């Protein structure tokens, strides 16, 4: 089993918090809702945070992945992927749909479309 260190940022936490550890971590999980319960709406200002982090990672060639958790669904995953997200945590965006398999296919298709 490979263990990979990561950091989680709540919506109000500044990216500056990461600066001292960017060389030491493999993953940043950006919360796009306030932690606590499922089914919350995606906080739109999170897109700018993801874009800024993606720029920092790319400019400095950090081998980091960006994971995004909260309010992810078919209707917004393309935008989140375009902003720079690599990994997406989807809960109610799948489980509150009628056809999980179809929803997962749609999510994958939207991620692919983000990079065309």
How would a crystallographer describe the biggest sheet?
Answer: 4 strands, parallel
What is the percentage of strand-forming residues?
A: 5-15%
Radius of gyration: 14 Å
Counting helices, strands and paired strands, the structural category is alpha/beta
CATH topology: TIM Barrel
Reported CATH architecture: Alpha-Beta Barrel
CATH class: Alpha Beta
Strand order of the largest sheet: 1-2-3-4
Question: Could you describe the 3D structure shown?
Answer:
The protein is of the alpha/beta class and about 120 residues long. The protein has a single domain (about 5-115), classed as Alpha-Beta Barrel (TIM Barrel), CATH 3.20.20.70. It is about 35% helix and about 15% strand. It is built from four helices and four strands. Strands 1-2-3-4 form a four-stranded parallel β-sheet, with helices on one face. Helix 2 links the parallel strand 3 (about 65-70) and strand 4. The longest helix has 15 residues, at about 45-60. About 25% of the residues are buried. The model has no long low-confidence stretch (mean pLDDT about 95).
Question: What tags apply to this protein structure?
Answer:
single chain, 116 residues, TIM Barrel
List the helices and strands and how they pair.
Layout: E1 6-9, E2 27-31, H1 46-60, E3 65-69, H2 77-83, E4 87-89, H3 92-95, H4 100-114
Give the structure's gist in a few sentences:
The protein has 116 residues and is of the alpha/beta class. It is globular and about 45 Å long.
């Amino acid at each position: 089993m490979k263990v990979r260190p990561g950091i989680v940022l709540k919506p109000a936490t500044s990216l500056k918090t990461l600066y001292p550890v960017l060389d030491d971590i493999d993953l940043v999980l950006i919360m796009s809702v306030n932690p606590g319960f499922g089914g919350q709406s995606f906080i739109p200002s999170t897109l700018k945070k993801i874009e800024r982090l993606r720029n920092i990672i790319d400019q400095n060639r950090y081998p980091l992945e960006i994971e995004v958790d909260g309010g992810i669904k078919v209707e917004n995953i393309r935008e989140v992927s375009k902003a720079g997200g690599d990994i997406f945590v989807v809960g109610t965006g799948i489980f509150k749909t009628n056809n999980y398999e179809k929803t997962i296919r749609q999510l994958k298709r939207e991620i692919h479309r983000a990079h065309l």
